[in-house]
Amino acid sequence: MFSELVQAEMVNGLVLVATLESDLGTHRKISPMRLLRPALVAGAIVPLFIGPVATHGTGLAVELAGVAAGLLGGLAAVALTRVYRSPRTGKPVSRATWPYALLWTLVVGARAAFSYGATHWFPAQITAWGMVHHVTGNAITDGLIFMAVAMLLVRTVGLAVRASALPGGAKGSTDAVPYATGTSAR
Fold first, then answer.
1. Beta bridge partners of 83
2. Start-to-end Cα distance in the chain
3. How many domains does the chain have?
4. Mean pLDDT for the chain?
5. DSSP string, 116-130
6. Is 49 exposed, middle or buried (0-12, 13-18, 19+ CB in 10 A)?
7. Which residue range forms the structural domain that includes residue 155?
8. What is the pLDDT of residues 134-164, one digit of tens each?
């Protein structure tokens, strides 16, 4: 039906759209489903694309590099997300704006460009590099998948941890609400 490349690019697009739809904007409720959705996406992606995982050598290093890149990307995503209590409900919410969208777009775009390039722009070079360094195509694909999954999961865990660390607040309370009105409480 679809080639592996087309399937991978569709997954990249779906991950980007789902993440931005879930996180972009202000007062985005941090609900159990919002936190569970990325794990469900990861659970659907991994079985479709994962090959035999490298357990030694350079292939393992490529996969671990993917995990490390995903961890860093996820931490950057968490850093670009503000978590606070809603002034209306007192429940944890988040705010993510264009820098967050730019980060996800660049990361997913780079992954998509690499996947496309490996098939159309530099297949001979990547094959030669893989042969010299004893890295299979599966290890490279797995590294990219591990990167995507790690970034999703770190973003999710980061939101959950930051939401649970918020000081308690009741509906209508101004305890954890940022000072933004320009007036002071008397």
1. 94
2. 67
3. 1
4. 86
5. HHHHHTSHHHHHHHH
6. middle
7. 4-164
8. 999 889 988 998 998 899 999 999 999 999 9
